[in-house]
Amino acid sequence: MYRHHPQTLHIKEMVDDGELGYLQLIRGSFCYTSTRPNNPRFDLQLGGGSLWDVGCYPISYARYLTGEDPVEVYGSQVSGPTRIDLLYAGQLSFPGGVISQFECSFITPSKSLMEITGNKGRITIPEPYKPGIRTRILLERNGHTQEIWIDGAELYRGEIEDLENAILLKRSPRINLDDSRGNIATIEALYESARLSKSMSIQNN
């Protein structure tokens, strides 16, 4: 849903317009402490794990901003009794030279943040994945920090409108199947990297 929100679209436009110069580093965090008993997120057979649940967000964000899929990934995880990743930290290398680093967790204090750095500036996003009706981002350039407020929308509104336009007006959806497959391929490569303790190349078809 965050990919359809005015905040995300505005940030993408800022990056594409060169307000940060050329991209260098994208850092993302999505962590929280889960104490719910019998949570399916802790069941390996049901696709449990912090990477599948919340790590997919900073990965998707980095892929969206670069407009590319990573060519190499590396990561490590802390596993729990049910063998799912309770905590995962990873790095993605993109063909354009951009590096993305992220963390996700079920066992650490809550943290939700994206930070986008270019050679001319940096954008910090305090509410990247669940932006609201009015959101705030920080733009740092030339030693000065500017607070930018963005008029948003209800969280799922843009996603619903995009679906309506695809069905009724035959428009291409904002997120297509290739995009979703790319995110899954990245996550699967990260799990393999943690399992083998080495970096993994991704073959993009």
Secondary structure blueprint with pairings:
Elements: H1 6-16, E1 23-33, H2 50-66, E2 72-79, E3 85-93, E4 99-105, E5 107-118, E6 122-125, E7 134-141, E8 144-151, H3 157-168, H4 177-196, E9 200-201
Parallel strand pairs: 1-4
Antiparallel strand pairs: 1-5, 2-3, 2-9, 3-4, 5-6, 6-7, 7-8
Helix pairs in contact: 2-4
Q: What is the radius of gyration computed over CA atoms, rounded to a whole number of angstroms?
A: 17 Å
Domain tally: 1
* Order of neighbouring strands in the sheet with most strands: 8-7-6-5-1-4-3-2-9
Mean pLDDT: 95
SS field, number of helical segments: 4
Strand content: 25-35%
Quick one: overall form? Answer: globular
Helix and strand composition category = alpha+beta
H/E element order: HEHEEEEEEEHHE
CATH topology: Dihydrodipicolinate Reductase, domain 2
Which regions are unreliable across 5 or more consecutive residues at pLDDT < 50?
none
Number of strands: 9
Q: Distance N terminus to C terminus?
A: 26 Å
- The percent range for helix content is 25-40%
Which homologous superfamily in CATH is the superfamily? Dihydrodipicolinate Reductase, domain 2
Shape-level CATH architecture? 2-Layer Sandwich
Task: Summarize the model shown.
The chain has 205 residues and is of the alpha+beta class.
Q: Could you explain how this protein is built, in words?
A:
It contains 4 helices and 9 strands. By secondary structure, the chain is α+β, with helices and mostly antiparallel strands. The chain has one domain (2-194): 2-Layer Sandwich (Dihydrodipicolinate Reductase, domain 2), CATH 3.30.360.10. Helix 2 (50-66) packs across helix 4 (177-196). The longest helix has 20 residues, at 177-196.
